[in-house]
Amino acid sequence: MSPDDGGFPTDYEIAQSVQTEHIADVVEPFGLARDDLELHGEEKAKVKLDAIERITEESDADSDLVLVTGMTPTPLGEGKTVTTVGLGQAFNRIGQDALIAIREPSLGPVFGVKGGAAGGGYSQVLPMEDINLHFTGDLHALTSAHNLISTMLDNHIKQHNELDIAVNWVNWPRAIDMNDRVLREIVIGLGGDVTGVPREDGFILTAASELMAVLCLADSIQDLKERIGRIIVAYDRDGDVVTVDDIDATGAVTILLKDALKPNVVQTIEGTPAFVHGGPFANIAHGTNSLIADDVASSLADVLVTEAGFGSDLGAEKFMNIVCRFGDMEPDAVTLVASVRALKYHGYDMWPPDVDELESENVEALERGFENLDRHVSNLRKFGVEVVVAINRFPEDSDEEVQTVIDHCEDELGVAAAESNVFSDGGEGGVELAEKLTDAIEADSDFAPLYDVDASIKEKIETVATEIYGAEGVEYHGSAEDDIERLTDLDFDDVPVCMSKTFHSFSDDASKKGAPEGWTLEVTEVYPSAGAGFLVVLTGDVLTLPGLPEEPAAAGMDIDADENISGLF
Amino acid sequence: MSPDDGGFPTDYEIAQSVQTEHIADVVEPFGLARDDLELHGEEKAKVKLDAIERITEESDADSDLVLVTGMTPTPLGEGKTVTTVGLGQAFNRIGQDALIAIREPSLGPVFGVKGGAAGGGYSQVLPMEDINLHFTGDLHALTSAHNLISTMLDNHIKQHNELDIAVNWVNWPRAIDMNDRVLREIVIGLGGDVTGVPREDGFILTAASELMAVLCLADSIQDLKERIGRIIVAYDRDGDVVTVDDIDATGAVTILLKDALKPNVVQTIEGTPAFVHGGPFANIAHGTNSLIADDVASSLADVLVTEAGFGSDLGAEKFMNIVCRFGDMEPDAVTLVASVRALKYHGYDMWPPDVDELESENVEALERGFENLDRHVSNLRKFGVEVVVAINRFPEDSDEEVQTVIDHCEDELGVAAAESNVFSDGGEGGVELAEKLTDAIEADSDFAPLYDVDASIKEKIETVATEIYGAEGVEYHGSAEDDIERLTDLDFDDVPVCMSKTFHSFSDDASKKGAPEGWTLEVTEVYPSAGAGFLVVLTGDVLTLPGLPEEPAAAGMDIDADENISGLF
Hints:
alpha/beta, Rossmann fold, Domain 2, N(10)-formyltetrahydrofolate synthetase, Formyltetrahydrofolate synthetase, domain 3, 3 domains, 20 helices, 35% helix, Formate_THF_ligase (chains A, B), Formate--tetrahydrofolate ligase (chains A, B), Formate_THF_ligase_CS (chains A, B)
């Protein structure tokens, strides 16, 4: 408890109160030896690639995979990561050897809005300040690798441009892990001949780089190198693709990423090992942690709990249609994180959110919000997986509200539901959820992706739009029709589609809450992520470089002479 | 030996042939316990700050300080770092507990020209590929910290600009650790109101950031924080300074640098501990490794061997006039690295260098080059220190050439000189040099900086210009006169001057070899590095963001499935 206010301790206070074990001791019971690790201090380690090769080859384990997803997010956060971490702890409490795999946070957003991305309360991963800052340097390696491609590209253009690259058709922006909005649109190469050729450019957040997606899908150095080489960075004046291979950057970029490919392992507050590795956008990319972490974790555990970004219409859809396909995996059960306040938010059709309203009891508003929950449940069932709703309980929720949700799930939807108190109670607060998920795992499931990769590009887009988003149809604007035609001609049509849509709504209009009907999805552009192996389908503007708010969290941060940090969480 | 060509093995082959010890075992005999270290794998560690506090407080050691500097550099490299590393090894061979402190390389330049910055041959620090790539993340932390200041600044301007910052008077560019010349001059903030206020901007190399200078001068977290807070990032419309404190970024920036402040320790190929920490430009900054590394190393060793950047007119001058003053240190002896080919290069007045000519015997050209060597020796003696000339031997040098240099030093200059073969023979090749330096250390010395900090700004500039560079006087152009007047009015005149001059010549004209006479130094601008605590004096253009050459080294790099790297060295 906080000594000052007698209230619930902060995440940082909880983290500081825990005596962590050496990470080598934490992972040893799961079959990772000290020699399998590259230590980063005593609490963080990377798993060596030869150890991964050995473990995945030796393993005949068919571990159970539990995916954590959520209803349409509110700006307040529903607690998907905290549920993932707590659930991993809970499975261990009921006698299952469970591991956790989650994304690693970006540094940039840390300085914008207060609050870390490593769980919270008694369900967080440690050392939380490291994980939210430099961690093991993966994001920095990605930033450098991304910008090395940019540098090699502009240097090629400056030197003789033998590839005849069209300077207005460069598809590789620069990257930074900082919420620095003034870099979104810039002009580079000013200052005369000696600095090269001026052109329009812009920066994206490192997490939005295709390199991040590639890192999260590669299963070895060789695979990583091949994927990097295929990335399309520009077109020449004939309209032919220019790849990373073409500008001779593949080897050097792979060298920069060789350590970033190794999954990071840390521990939760209760000593459950957690892989925290990779963090691609769930918007222009697939939004889940690395496949290599999933691979090694599922070879070591009875149960692997992992998480997909944003709501189930984005993260889970991509997990099922893209990640499971590429990784040859299937989820044995899915838990959909809901909260009383998120249901009320959708019930009020509230925009922006009014926190006081959301924290006051209102069963009627809550019930109006069920339409959002219901569509998520119904969508997930289309993949043939068992769903358990997790109600992540906040202190302000009334018992009646929570019971209303449980009754709705069980009686109206016919799905299991459990209150989750992992934030306040750690693994113990997730035991009921873990037990219901165990039942779900044991039930027969019949998983399948929603579309065939060999379907036409439009067919795949339309399947997601109508089956998942609830659109009546799809309209193509801007370059979309031409893009689809060109990509089909290039034989780049037999891959999954990675839909880029606002996460604030099932629809492509961020202001529409609940479960919007009677609308049409508007596709504006389709482009290949050839290294990742999917087509990105843009619907409306995508913000790939956020900005800082008027009162950035950074302004309230401090560190004392003894390295105690304040204001970070 | 290289199995392929029978010739001298490459740096990488030599590095791979060595079985390193665990870094904790390497430093233990010097008094660093395992608990004093934060391990980064088995070969790299950071020293904890509380250990440094304990060690420097407990120590009554007055270790001997040997500075390694050089004559005016040639594009071929004279081997200053290799001499520093080899000399540390040599001192250990003659029974002295010697430690080494050198700068850590920037990542950016690695992709431009082949060749690492961690010594070479049998006098290199390991693990050389790590040290030249991400190492322990210090450069990445600096890049992030630097750009957080930029982001906070532009966000302040966008939100309400309450400080009334003049957008055309921002003195804080952005930073990147990549030789990406198209970012030298850019326009940011395009795209309308939502992205902020458009303005001209540019990127510098991270090593050129004032944060790097600050990190290398701070002796604690508290000192680091205070220095960061004082950094001047812009001026308001009244011409008053705007600092990092003013934009509320001090705490967050310090948090990002808390680990980077901890010195890195690794080992040489012969197992001598080497601190590799900090790498400020020797041009707009002071160009030596961190003071905190010097502090801890000199508390642990009998002899500390350290290195200053570029020729003695830049690096050594700043070491004596700035670093020793700030760090309350004095060099007990200086070794000036010369080479036969550098002497011939100056003797030919060659520009650009002709390698074939330089590798052919020519005693006459060599002798003409002595004027460069002589001025360096004479300059160093003005600080009251003993000088030993180290002739870094290359395979092509003839015995007569080497002997001619030794005779010249001993007979004409009256300084000791020794041939150094540390590249080919490791520490054994530096024993004679170490012995002569031991004599120099034992001789009486009478060290003093060359000017008083209380002298006027112009007096300090003119002292360096005439006494060190050999100029006849100084002319002030551009804003220089106004700058000096304003800085004097602001009481910012009682600090050392950090001269920014080309390193290719004693003069401000890069093409003038030897020891130019009859010229006048042209000062164009003077600005404060308030966090570092000196004034930067610009003479001509300073390149703070290099570019890649036509055939970048990156294009020849590769990595195989077993993580073996090629083309990096």
